Amino acid sequence: xxxxxxxxxxxxxxxxxxxxxxxxxxxxxxxxxxxxxxxxxxxxxxxxxxxxxxxxxxxxxxxxxxxxxxxxxxxxxxxxxxxxxxxxxxxxxxxxxxxxxxxxxxxxxxxxxxxxxxxxxxxxxxxxxxxxxxxxxxxxxxxxxxxxxxxxxxxxxxxxxxxxxxxxxxxxxxxxxxxxxxxxxxxxxxxxxxxxxxxxxxx
Length: 203
Prior knowledge:
6 helices; 63% helix; elongated; glycoprotein; 4_helix_cytokine-like_core; disulfide bond; growth factor activity; IL6/GCSF/MGF_CS
Protein backbone atom coordinates (compact mmCIF):
# COMPACT_ATOMS: atom_id res chain seq x y z
CA UNK A 1 0.00 0.00 0.00
CA UNK A 2 1.34 3.42 -0.95
CA UNK A 3 2.06 6.05 1.66
CA UNK A 4 0.04 9.28 1.12
CA UNK A 5 1.93 11.90 -0.86
CA UNK A 6 4.43 13.37 1.58
CA UNK A 7 4.99 16.51 -0.46
CA UNK A 8 1.35 17.57 -0.24
CA UNK A 9 1.21 16.77 3.46
CA UNK A 10 4.32 18.81 4.17
CA UNK A 11 2.99 21.71 2.11
CA UNK A 12 -0.28 21.61 4.04
CA UNK A 13 1.68 21.64 7.29
CA UNK A 14 3.57 24.75 6.29
CA UNK A 15 0.36 26.50 5.23
CA UNK A 16 -1.45 25.58 8.44
CA UNK A 17 0.75 27.51 10.82
CA UNK A 18 2.84 29.86 8.63
CA UNK A 19 3.94 32.58 8.42
CA UNK A 20 5.84 33.05 11.67
CA UNK A 21 7.65 36.20 12.70
CA UNK A 22 11.34 35.46 12.29
CA UNK A 23 13.22 34.84 15.55
CA UNK A 24 16.63 34.12 14.09
CA UNK A 25 19.06 32.83 16.67
CA UNK A 26 17.07 34.07 19.67
CA UNK A 27 17.93 32.17 22.87
CA UNK A 28 15.01 30.04 24.04
CA UNK A 29 15.02 31.72 27.44
CA UNK A 30 14.09 34.94 25.67
CA UNK A 31 11.19 33.33 23.82
CA UNK A 32 9.01 32.56 26.82
CA UNK A 33 7.00 35.72 26.29
CA UNK A 34 7.08 35.67 22.50
CA UNK A 35 3.52 35.38 21.25
CA UNK A 36 4.35 33.62 17.98
CA UNK A 37 6.44 30.97 19.73
CA UNK A 38 3.78 30.43 22.39
CA UNK A 39 1.13 30.16 19.68
CA UNK A 40 3.25 27.53 17.91
CA UNK A 41 3.55 25.56 21.16
CA UNK A 42 -0.15 25.72 22.03
CA UNK A 43 -1.32 24.75 18.55
CA UNK A 44 1.05 21.84 18.32
CA UNK A 45 0.30 20.63 21.84
CA UNK A 46 -3.31 20.38 20.64
CA UNK A 47 -2.15 18.69 17.43
CA UNK A 48 -0.09 16.17 19.42
CA UNK A 49 -3.09 15.45 21.67
CA UNK A 50 -5.19 14.71 18.56
CA UNK A 51 -2.55 12.34 17.19
CA UNK A 52 -2.31 10.57 20.57
CA UNK A 53 -6.09 10.14 20.54
CA UNK A 54 -6.01 8.58 17.07
CA UNK A 55 -3.22 6.20 18.10
CA UNK A 56 -5.22 5.23 21.19
CA UNK A 57 -8.24 4.53 18.97
CA UNK A 58 -6.13 2.17 16.85
CA UNK A 59 -4.80 0.51 20.01
CA UNK A 60 -8.39 -0.18 21.07
CA UNK A 61 -9.11 -1.71 17.66
CA UNK A 62 -6.08 -4.03 17.97
CA UNK A 63 -7.22 -4.98 21.47
CA UNK A 64 -10.82 -5.66 20.40
CA UNK A 65 -9.95 -7.40 17.12
CA UNK A 66 -7.01 -9.58 18.14
CA UNK A 67 -7.33 -9.65 21.96
CA UNK A 68 -3.86 -8.10 22.17
CA UNK A 69 -4.24 -5.67 25.05
CA UNK A 70 -1.51 -6.17 27.64
CA UNK A 71 2.12 -5.46 26.84
CA UNK A 72 3.60 -7.59 29.61
CA UNK A 73 1.90 -10.71 28.19
CA UNK A 74 3.57 -10.18 24.80
CA UNK A 75 7.19 -9.56 25.80
CA UNK A 76 8.35 -13.06 24.85
CA UNK A 77 6.94 -12.67 21.34
CA UNK A 78 8.47 -9.21 21.07
CA UNK A 79 11.94 -10.74 21.28
CA UNK A 80 11.31 -12.34 17.88
CA UNK A 81 10.28 -9.07 16.26
CA UNK A 82 12.36 -6.29 14.74
CA UNK A 83 10.43 -3.46 16.42
CA UNK A 84 12.45 -0.57 17.81
CA UNK A 85 11.59 2.54 19.80
CA UNK A 86 12.53 5.80 18.08
CA UNK A 87 14.91 7.66 20.41
CA UNK A 88 13.88 10.85 22.18
CA UNK A 89 16.51 11.09 24.91
CA UNK A 90 17.34 14.65 23.86
CA UNK A 91 13.82 15.69 24.89
CA UNK A 92 14.03 14.67 28.54
CA UNK A 93 17.64 15.22 29.46
CA UNK A 94 18.44 17.71 32.17
CA UNK A 95 20.48 19.59 29.57
CA UNK A 96 17.42 20.01 27.35
CA UNK A 97 18.26 21.37 23.88
CA UNK A 98 15.31 22.40 21.75
CA UNK A 99 17.29 22.03 18.52
CA UNK A 100 18.22 18.38 19.08
CA UNK A 101 14.86 17.57 20.66
CA UNK A 102 12.94 19.01 17.71
CA UNK A 103 15.21 17.12 15.32
CA UNK A 104 14.60 13.85 17.16
CA UNK A 105 10.84 14.41 17.15
CA UNK A 106 10.90 14.95 13.38
CA UNK A 107 13.10 11.89 12.81
CA UNK A 108 10.79 9.74 14.95
CA UNK A 109 7.69 11.00 13.17
CA UNK A 110 9.28 9.98 9.87
CA UNK A 111 10.01 6.47 11.20
CA UNK A 112 6.51 5.94 12.56
CA UNK A 113 4.93 7.44 9.44
CA UNK A 114 6.45 4.52 7.51
CA UNK A 115 5.75 1.91 10.20
CA UNK A 116 2.05 2.74 10.11
CA UNK A 117 1.88 1.04 6.71
CA UNK A 118 2.04 -2.22 8.69
CA UNK A 119 -0.95 -1.04 10.74
CA UNK A 120 -2.92 -0.18 7.63
CA UNK A 121 -2.27 -3.65 6.22
CA UNK A 122 -3.29 -5.18 9.56
CA UNK A 123 -6.50 -3.12 9.87
CA UNK A 124 -7.73 -2.51 6.31
CA UNK A 125 -11.17 -1.43 7.52
CA UNK A 126 -9.49 1.43 9.38
CA UNK A 127 -7.21 2.56 6.54
CA UNK A 128 -8.86 5.99 6.52
CA UNK A 129 -7.93 6.62 10.16
CA UNK A 130 -4.35 5.47 9.52
CA UNK A 131 -4.03 7.79 6.52
CA UNK A 132 -5.44 10.72 8.53
CA UNK A 133 -2.92 9.95 11.24
CA UNK A 134 -0.07 9.88 8.72
CA UNK A 135 -1.17 13.23 7.30
CA UNK A 136 -1.33 14.76 10.78
CA UNK A 137 2.15 13.42 11.55
CA UNK A 138 3.55 14.96 8.35
CA UNK A 139 1.90 18.26 9.26
CA UNK A 140 3.33 18.22 12.79
CA UNK A 141 6.81 17.49 11.43
CA UNK A 142 6.46 20.35 8.96
CA UNK A 143 5.27 22.74 11.68
CA UNK A 144 8.34 21.93 13.78
CA UNK A 145 10.68 22.36 10.82
CA UNK A 146 9.12 25.74 9.99
CA UNK A 147 9.47 26.92 13.59
CA UNK A 148 13.08 25.72 13.77
CA UNK A 149 13.88 27.73 10.66
CA UNK A 150 12.21 30.80 12.12
CA UNK A 151 14.22 30.39 15.32
CA UNK A 152 17.42 30.14 13.31
CA UNK A 153 18.00 26.55 14.45
CA UNK A 154 19.71 24.01 12.23
CA UNK A 155 17.24 21.81 10.36
CA UNK A 156 17.50 18.57 8.46
CA UNK A 157 15.08 18.01 5.60
CA UNK A 158 14.16 14.35 5.30
CA UNK A 159 13.05 12.75 2.03
CA UNK A 160 9.28 12.85 1.59
CA UNK A 161 9.25 9.12 0.88
CA UNK A 162 10.13 6.85 3.78
CA UNK A 163 13.62 5.41 3.32
CA UNK A 164 13.59 3.00 6.25
CA UNK A 165 12.73 -0.64 5.52
CA UNK A 166 9.29 -1.61 6.75
CA UNK A 167 9.16 -4.30 9.45
CA UNK A 168 8.60 -7.79 8.11
CA UNK A 169 6.70 -10.51 9.95
CA UNK A 170 7.04 -14.27 9.66
CA UNK A 171 3.38 -14.96 10.44
CA UNK A 172 0.02 -13.29 10.78
CA UNK A 173 0.28 -13.52 14.57
CA UNK A 174 3.66 -11.81 14.53
CA UNK A 175 2.15 -9.09 12.34
CA UNK A 176 -0.59 -8.57 14.92
CA UNK A 177 1.87 -8.41 17.82
CA UNK A 178 4.18 -6.20 15.78
CA UNK A 179 1.30 -3.83 15.15
CA UNK A 180 0.57 -3.77 18.88
CA UNK A 181 4.15 -2.76 19.70
CA UNK A 182 4.41 -0.20 16.88
CA UNK A 183 1.38 1.58 18.35
CA UNK A 184 2.57 1.18 21.95
CA UNK A 185 6.02 2.57 21.11
CA UNK A 186 4.50 5.41 19.10
CA UNK A 187 2.20 6.33 21.99
CA UNK A 188 5.20 6.52 24.36
CA UNK A 189 7.08 8.59 21.79
CA UNK A 190 4.15 11.03 21.55
CA UNK A 191 3.88 11.32 25.33
CA UNK A 192 7.55 12.33 25.54
CA UNK A 193 7.18 14.78 22.64
CA UNK A 194 4.11 16.28 24.32
CA UNK A 195 5.98 16.74 27.61
CA UNK A 196 8.86 18.40 25.74
CA UNK A 197 6.54 20.90 24.04
CA UNK A 198 4.78 21.57 27.33
CA UNK A 199 8.17 22.09 29.01
CA UNK A 200 8.94 24.84 26.50
CA UNK A 201 5.77 26.69 27.49
CA UNK A 202 7.11 27.02 31.04
CA UNK A 203 10.59 28.35 30.23
